[in-house]
Specification:
single chain, 338 residues
Length: 338
């Protein structure tokens, strides 16, 4: 166990280097969270029609050039998560958002961690550190993913804010009643967003989502962030990875194999979304490294490091994740009882 822990710490340090370097050399304050905060700010100021328009982040002023990509990327009911943070200035909102969602992630992950696993490592994986840097939703999504696999059906409904990655959380449901409750709550969230935020947001979101899908299919290389097959190889290249990922997942479904497979089955996803997947490989390193042969250690370590490897090109990640998933399903996983 001591050797496992030593190796885990070394691999964690290696995985932290690239995200940490980007955080310190990047432009502090220019994060993806700016788009989320700005969308909520526009809604509160009565300018909801601008949320799905290019140039959204101009509300931040300061002369930042976000280009045409600056649009709110989530469905309207996701705004319920961000509205409270728009009540305070941007930098405090960014810091509180990171702190609150990271704490939620750590708390929800604890039942799935091995004994003596240092909780701080939960938020020091490459994906977690990248999520901190971008101010992204990876901790929120990951926390809801953990809750879903603890049998909390409402978490599956809340994961509809990021449906392209959250849909596999349906595997966590226990029975038809839970599925019906998820459908009912999801519809209630849509209706609530229409009533309280405005129905006009939904057509704008659908139009934006279709345009985003077209960009994913036509853009072969999403440098520095993309990890899903369609983002590296287009939609034609996505199909074989999605099929292979689904077939492998069918052999063993648990919280971590489903998280890994989601980045093969979904047409698009980013390195900061991989908080649960990266932690799953880290748990395996921490718990099973000593009994792994070398041909298992290599793909598991690469799977853990894949959010950092994505910084040198999206096309590397789908084959690595497929290899990592092939290895991951060979090891039993039962969350410790707590």
């Amino acid at each position: 166990m001591q050797q496992n822990r030593s190796v885990a710490i070394q691999i964690w340090i290696i995985g932290a280097l690239a995200p940490a370097a980007l955080f310190f050399v990047g432009d502090f304050g220019k994060h993806d969270f700016a788009l989320l905060w700005a969308a909520a700010k526009l809604l509160l100021s009565g300018n909801a029609e601008s949320i799905y328009s290019p140039g959204l982040a101009q509300v931040l002023a300061d002369g930042w050039d976000w280009g045409a990509a600056a649009v709110f990327p989530y469905p309207p009911h996701a705004l319920f998560f961000f509205l409270p943070f728009a009540l305070v200035p941007y930098i405090p909102a960014y810091l509180v958002w990171n702190a609150a969602t990271a704490a939620f992630f750590v708390w929800t992950a604890r039942p799935f961690l091995p004994e003596r696993f240092p909780p701080v490592l939960t938020i020091l994986t490459p994906a977690a550190l990248t999520c901190f840097d971008f101010g992204q939703t990876g901790f929120l999504m990951g926390g809801l993913w953990f809750m879903a696999f603890r049998g909390k059906w409402w978490a599956v409904a809340f994961l509809t804010f990021k449906p392209h990655l959250g849909f596999l959380s349906i595997l966590s449901l226990r029975g038809r009643k839970s599925l019906m409750l998820v459908v009912a709550l999801s519809l209630a969230l849509v209706v609530a967003s229409g009533i309280f935020l405005g129905w006009r947001l939904w057509p704008a979101f659908i139009e934006q989502a279709i345009g985003h899908g077209e960009r994913v299919g036509s853009t072969k290389r999403w440098l520095f962030a993309g990890v899903a097959p369609a983002m590296a190889y287009g939609f034609v290249g996505w199909v074989p990875f999605a099929l292979a990922g689904a077939l492998m997942l069918a052999r063993k479904v648990n919280i971590f194999t489903a998280a890994t497979a989601s980045f093969l089955i979904s047409p698009f996803g980013f390195h900061y979304d991989m908080t649960v997947a990266s932690l799953g490989f880290g748990v395996l390193i921490f718990n099973s490294w000593n009994r792994m042969p070398m041909h298992h250690r290599i793909p598991i370590a690469l799977g853990f490091l894949s959010p950092a490897i994505a910084l040198v090109g999206a096309w590397w990640i789908p084959p690595l994740l497929l290899w990592s998933l092939w290895t991951q399903i060979k090891y039993d996983f039962e969350p410790p009882s707590r």
